[in-house]
Design goal:
The chain is α+β, with helices and mostly antiparallel strands. The chain folds into four domains: about 45 residues; about 110 residues, no CATH class; about 120 residues, Roll (Ubiquitin-like (UB roll)), CATH 3.10.20; about 240 residues, no CATH class. The protein contains 15 helices and 38 strands. Strand 1 and strand 2 form a beta hairpin. The relative contact order is 0.06.
C-alpha cells in the first residue's frame, strides 16, 4: 500500500511538471511571436514612412506627418505665405504696427526645418526612436521652424518703437547756477523691454504663430538720486572754492569759480561690491560676502555720481593759452659785407605747450586742492643755430639795453633812427675797444642829421644830431648788462626826462663828438655783434649785443639819488624876432642831484668786475623867449 501511494504521488508530480513545461513553452512561443509581430509591425511602420515624416509630427502648429520632404517643404512654404502674409503685428501702449518678415530681418530655412522634423524617430537609439514615434502618433510631437534673424534690422524696428514708448529716467545731476553748484531733481521713466520683445518674436517665428505680440514697457528708475548727487555737489564746491592759476614765465591764466565749474563733468559710475571678508576661527575659515542692498527691484546696478575734469573742455580752454605760449623755432641767418653784418637773424628756440602733461597736472591740482599749476612746455630746436650760421663765434645774446623817448620832436626821432641804424651790424673784434664816435662818425648836417635840441655850452639849444645821446645811453645799458668793461662814459649835464622813463636816474651816457665818447672793451672769446631795433612809432630803442659767453653774469642795482637841489627860477628873455605876445620855451627846468648805481660782474661765482657809476646833475633853469616884435 505504501509503495502504491508513493507511485501515485510521483505520477502527480510528473503531470504537474509536464503541464508547467508545456505552459512555459507556450508562453515563450507567444512572446517570440509577439516580438516578431512587433518587429514586423515596426518594420512595416518604418517602411510605410520610409521617405516620409511620421504621423503626428508638427513644425510649430503645422501638421506635416505622412509627408515627403518635398511635400512638407511645400506645405510649410504655403503656411508661411498664408500666416505671415500681413506680417507680424506688434502691440505696444496705445499703438499697433505690423512688420513683414523682411522688415524684421527674419528668414526661414525650409530645408533645415523639414529635415529636423524628418529626423524624428530616426535617431541612433532605437528605444528613443520608438518613444518619439509613439509620442508623435498618440499626442503629437512639435519641432521648431528654423529661422534666422538679422539683428541689425530687428534692432532698428525695436528702436523705432522705443522712440515712441520710451521715457528715459532722469538722473539727478549738478549744475552751476547763481554762483553755486545746485542739485537737479531725478525723475523715474519707462523703457521698452527689448530683450523680452526679441524672445517673443523668436518664439512666434519658431511656432509659426502669427498672433499679435504684446510688447512690454517696464518702469525704469534713475540710478542717481538727489542724495547721491548731493555728495557730488559738496565735492564740486570744494574744487571751485579757490581759483586755479596756470603759469608760465611770468604769464598767468586765471580760472575763476564759473570757469572751473564749466570744466567739471558729472558721470554715473557703477559701485563695485566690497570684497569678501575672510574670518578665521582656528583651523576653519568662512567668508562673509558684503553686497549692496538694492532699494528698488528695478535697479540692476548701484551707481554713484563721480565728479570728473572734462578733458575736452580743458583742452578747449588751453587752446588760447597754447597760442600765447607756442613759438616756432627760427633758423639763424648771417651775412657779412663791407666790414659789417648786413643780415643777422639770431636763432630762436621754439616752444610748444605739452597739452598731455598739462592736462595731467591740472587734473592732479584739482584733485589735491592746489591753486597754481606751472605749465609744462616742450623745447623745439632750430635746424640752424647762430654758431653754425657764421664764423665769428657769435652764438648768443650777451646783453640788451632799452630806452624810451616818448615826447620827442620829429627831428629828434629821425636822428635817433639814423644813428642807431649806422651802429646796426657793427662787429667788435676780440680785444678791441669799441668807440661810438669811430662807429658813427661825424654828426652834422653834411652826414644827414637834422637840428634838434642838444646840451651845448651850458644851454639847451638847437644843433645837428639832437637825440644821438638817446642812442649812446641805450648802448651803454646793453654793454652794462653784457658785463663788458666800460672804458669811457659821461653823464649828462642835467637830468633828462627821456632817460628816466624806464630806469632810475644815473643810467645815461652823453656823447658830444669828438670831445666826449662812449667806449667799452671786448674782452670775450669771440667777436661782438651790435644789433639795433628802433621802434619809432612806439618811441622805443633797443640795443642787443651778441657774442660768445664765457659764463659772466652782470648784476646792476643799488640805485641812489641824493643831494637834490631845486631848479632855479625860470628865465624870460626878450626876443625881437618873435611877435609881441608870443612866448616860446627853449629850456626846461630840472632838479639838481647826485645819482649812482653799482654793477658786479661774476664768473663761476667769482667777482671779476665791480663798478660804481656816479653822476652829478646841475640844477637847470627853464628859459622862455618872450616876443617883442611889433
Amino acid at each position: 500500500m505504501a509503495n502504491q501511494k508513493k507511485s501515485n504521488e510521483n505520477k502527480t508530480i510528473d503531470t504537474r511538471a509536464l503541464i508547467a513545461d508545456l505552459f512555459f513553452k507556450t508562453f515563450l512561443t507567444f512572446l517570440i511571436l509577439l516580438f516578431l509581430l512587433l518587429i514586423i509591425s515596426l518594420t512595416a511602420y518604418h517602411l510605410a514612412y520610409w521617405e516620409k515624416t511620421y504621423p503626428g509630427v508638427k513644425i510649430g502648429s503645422l501638421h506635416i506627418g505622412n509627408l515627403s520632404l518635398k511635400e512638407a517643404q511645400t506645405v510649410l512654404q504655403k503656411q508661411l505665405d498664408s500666416s505671415f502674409k500681413q506680417g507680424l503685428t506688434l502691440n505696444y501702449p496705445g499703438k499697433s504696427k505690423s512688420f513683414s518678415l523682411t522688415e524684421l530681418g527674419a528668414q526661414y530655412d525650409l530645408p533645415q526645418s523639414v529635415s529636423f522634423a524628418y529626423q524624428i524617430g530616426r535617431g541612433k537609439n532605437p528605444f528613443l526612436n520608438f518613444r518619439d514615434k509613439w509620442q508623435a502618433l498618440t499626442s503629437g510631437l512639435i519641432v521648431n521652424a528654423q529661422s534666422q534673424l538679422n539683428e541689425e534690422r530687428l534692432n532698428s524696428v525695436l528702436e523705432s518703437i522705443a522712440s515712441e514708448t520710451d521715457q528715459p529716467p532722469l538722473n539727478s545731476t549738478i549744475q552751476f547756477q547763481g554762483g553755486k553748484m545746485v542739485v537737479t531733481p531725478s525723475k523715474p521713466g519707462h523703457l521698452l523691454d527689448k530683450e523680452a520683445a526679441k524672445n517673443k518674436i523668436r518664439a512666434a517665428l519658431a511656432k509659426l504663430d502669427n498672433q499679435p505680440i504684446s510688447l512690454e514697457v517696464r518702469p525704469a528708475n534713475p540710478t542717481i538720486n538727489e542724495q547721491k548727487a548731493e555728495k557730488a555737489r559738496v565735492e564740486a564746491e570744494k574744487i571751485i572754492a579757490k581759483p586755479l592759476t596756470l603759469k608760465y614765465e611770468g604769464k598767468t591764466w586765471l580760472y575763476e569759480k564759473g570757469e572751473l565749474a564749466n570744466l567739471l563733468s558729472f558721470t554715473p559710475q557703477k559701485e563695485k561690491p566690497l570684497p569678501a571678508l575672510r574670518v578665521s576661527l582656528g583651523e576653519k575659515a568662512f567668508e562673509i560676502k558684503r553686497v549692496y542692498a538694492l532699494k528698488n527691484p528695478s535697479e540692476t546696478d548701484k551707481a554713484s555720481l563721480q565728479v570728473n575734469l572734462n578733458q575736452e573742455k580743458v583742452k578747449e580752454t588751453l587752446t588760447p593759452v597754447a597760442k600765447e605760449i607756442n613759438q616756432e623755432p627760427l633758423d639763424a641767418k648771417f651775412k657779412f659785407e663791407g666790414g659789417k653784418v648786413t643780415v643777422f637773424v639770431p636763432h630762436q628756440v621754439g616752444r610748444e605747450l605739452d597739452e598731455t602733461a598739462a592736462l595731467e597736472k591740472i587734473a592732479a591740482a584739482v584733485e589735491s586742492g592746489q591753486t597754481e599749476v606751472e605749465l609744462p612746455v616742450k623745447v623745439k630746436s632750430p635746424s640752424v643755430t647762430n654758431e653754425v650760421a657764421n664764423d665769428f663765434q657769435i652764438k648768443e645774446l650777451l646783453g640788451k639795453g632799452v630806452s624810451k623817448f616818448a615826447g620827442s620832436v620829429a627831428n629828434r626821432v629821425y636822428n635817433i633812427g639814423l644813428a642807431a641804424g649806422r651802429l646796426n651790424g657793427t662787429l667788435v673784434a676780440p680785444g678791441e675797444t669799441f668807440s661810438m664816435y669811430k662807429a658813427v662818425g661825424e654828426v652834422d648836417g653834411s652826414t644827414g642829421y637834422k637840428e634838434a635840441y642838444v646840451i651845448s655850452n651850458g644851454r639847451t639849444q638847437l644843433d645837428y644830431g639832437g637825440g644821438v645821446c638817446q642812442v649812446s645811453t641805450t648802448l651803454f645799458r646793453a654793454a652794462l648788462e653784457a658785463g663788458l668793461p666800460i672804458v669811457e662814459r659821461h653823464p649828462h649835464a642835467y637830468r633828462v626826462g627821456y632817460y628816466e622813463q624806464d630806469m632810475p636816474p644815473g643810467a645815461d651816457a652823453s656823447v658830444y663828438f669828438p670831445y666826449s665818447d662812449l667806449k667799452f672793451k671786448n674782452d670775450t672769446p669771440g667777436h661782438l655783434l651790435i644789433q639795433t631795433v628802433a621802434d619809432l612809432k612806439n618811441f622805443t630803442l633797443s640795443f642787443e649785443i651778441y657774442g660768445t659767453s664765457d659764463g659772466r653774469k652782470a648784476e646792476i642795482g643799488n640805485f641812489w639819488l641824493g643831494n637834490q637841489v631845486p631848479a632855479p627860477a625860470p628865465l624870460h628873455q626878450p626876443d625881437p624876432n618873435l611877435p609881441k605876445g608870443t612866448t616860446k620855451q627853449i629850456d626846461w627846468a630840472a632838479t639838481g642831484a647826485d645819482a649812482s648805481f653799482t654793477r658786479t660782474v661774476t664768473r663761476n661765482g667769482e667777482t671779476v668786475v665791480s663798478d660804481k657809476f656816479f653822476s652829478r646833475y646841475k640844477p637847470w633853469q627853464a628859459v622862455y623867449l618872450v616876443g617883442t616884435k611889433e
